[in-house]
């Protein structure tokens, strides 16, 4: 089985994975691999915002998951959409841009995550955005992700807003700015009439970085865990399985190699199941044989997963 090593292996070129790979590979000395199960995102149904029903329902662009029979819904089975394509779910989603409520961030900070209060997170929101309404203390103006206010040109929109006001609700001029509460016109990840996925915003112009390797149509079967740390991954690509190791390379710098798992699905005997998000396992490089973790998870539809 071929074995390759990188400083960082990012699994899943989805909404988060594209950003992580782009930011990591800004450092030329780091070798970054981005692994995606799906294929290219070059498709008009992804690019055109109005084609969202086609993107959303496409079998080629999604994983095709369904819930099990839902007892509270008379056993109806519900679609569980997730993108299986470069850009991940940002390539098929509804594009709406709403920040979380600042009080939620304060709540997380008060429960032991001091760096997650809104004041800490605001610079990252601003850094990400290129807002059509322009930059101010709350909004970003030159980030990689284009955000625009939906045109809402029909006069009924105005009627809706005024009706809300008459019912006693305020209008907020920018719900992603100073004040979230209030009626507003939606904002979306759309720029120049094009869906702005994170693949488009963060990776389009940097794909050719020599230190960034991108594998599409490459399915991670397993994350191999040794002594509690993710040590390597098994990736199936072009009919072969490779074992990839995030490994310390270079003697002069600190060892900070990581496997970043931003994917959700791991294959198990014929079908993939279970939602698992494991972020940033620090790795130690070693040549000892790896034990493959055997933890099993049961999905709502009864399948199991043994990858993590
Ligand atoms: C129908 C729908 C509409 C939505 N609308 C909105 C909206 O309007 N606004 C909003 O903010 N949010 C919306 N969301 C939510 C938002 O899109 C997701 O929360 C977000 O995209 C999740 O990002 P992620 O990086 O965690 O996962 P994803 O973007 O799903 O990325 C995961 C990536 O990992 C890949 N992957 C998975 N398993 C493997 C594997 N084993 N090997 C290799 N690669 C793998 C997948 O193919 C995928 O590309 C919507 C979601 C859905 C389903």
Could you describe the 3D structure shown?
The chain is α/β, with parallel strands linked by helices. It has two domains: 1-92 and 196-308, FAD/NAD(P)-binding domain (3-Layer(bba) Sandwich), CATH 3.50.50; 96-188, Arc Repressor Mutant. 19% of the residues lie in helices and 24% in strands. The chain is built from seven helices and 20 strands. The strands form seven sheets. Strands 11-3-2-15-18 form a five-stranded mixed beta sheet, covered by helices on one side. It has a four-stranded mixed beta sheet with strand order 1-14-13-12, with no helix packed on it. Strands 6-7-8 form a three-stranded mixed beta sheet. Mean pLDDT is 82; it is low at 248-256 and 267-308. The structure holds flavin-adenine dinucleotide.
- In terms of DSSP E residues, the strand content is 15-25%
Radius of gyration: 21 Å
**C-alpha geometry:** globular
The CATH superfamily of the largest domain bears the name FAD/NAD(P)-binding domain
Kindly state the mean pLDDT as a whole number? 82
Please state the second-level CATH architecture of the largest domain.
3-Layer(bba) Sandwich
Write the CATH fold name of the largest domain: FAD/NAD(P)-binding domain
Number of strands: 20
pLDDT < 50 stretches = 248-256, 267-308
What's the end-to-end separation, in Å?
20 Å
Number of helices: 7
CATH class of the largest domain, please? Answer: Alpha Beta
- Chemical compounds bound to the protein: flavin-adenine dinucleotide
* Helix percent band: 10-25%
Task: Encode the helix/strand succession as letters.
Answer: EEHEHHEEHHEEHEEEHEEEEEEEEEE
Largest sheet: 5 strands, mixed
What would you call the structural class? Answer: alpha/beta
Kindly give the count of domains.
2
Strand order of the largest sheet: 11-3-2-15-18
């Amino acid at each position: 089985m071929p074995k390759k090593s990188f400083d960082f292996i990012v699994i899943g070129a989805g909404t988060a994975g594209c950003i992580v790979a782009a930011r990591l590979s800004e450092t030329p000395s780091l070798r970054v691999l981005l692994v995606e199960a799906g294929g290219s995102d070059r498709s008009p149904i992804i690019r055109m915002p109005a084609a969202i029903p086609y993107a959303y329902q496409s079998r080629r662009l999604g994983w095709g998951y369904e819930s099990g029979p839902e007892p509270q819904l008379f056993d109806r089975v519900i679609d569980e959409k997730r993108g299986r394509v470069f850009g991940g779910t940002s390539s098929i989603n509804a594009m709406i841009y709403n920040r979380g409520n600042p009080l939620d961030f304060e709540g997380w900070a008060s429960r032991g995550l001091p760096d997650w209060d809104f004041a800490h997170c605001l610079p990252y929101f601003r850094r990400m955005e290129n807002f059509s309404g322009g930059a101010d203390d709350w909004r970003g103006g030159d980030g990689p992700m284009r955000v625009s206010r939906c045109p809402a040109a029909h006069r009924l929109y105005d009627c809706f807003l005024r009706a809300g006001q008459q019912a006693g609700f305020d209008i907020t001029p920018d719900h992603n700015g100073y004040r979230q509460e209030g009626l507003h016109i939606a904002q979306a990840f759309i720029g120049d009439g094009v869906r702005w996925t994170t693949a488009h915003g963060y990776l389009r112009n940097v794909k050719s970085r020599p230190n960034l390797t991108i594998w599409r149509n490459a399915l991670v079967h397993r994350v191999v865990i040794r002594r509690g740390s993710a040590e390597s991954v098994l990736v199936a690509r072009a009919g072969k399985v490779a074992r990839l190791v995030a490994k310390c390379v270079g003697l002069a710098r600190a060892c900070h190699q990581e496997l970043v798992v931003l994917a959700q699905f791991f294959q198990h005997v014929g079908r993939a199941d279970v939602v698992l998000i494991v972020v940033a396992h620090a790795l130690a490089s070693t040549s000892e044989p790896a034990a493959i973790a055997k933890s099993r998870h049961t999905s709502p539809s009864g399948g199991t997963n043994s990858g993590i």
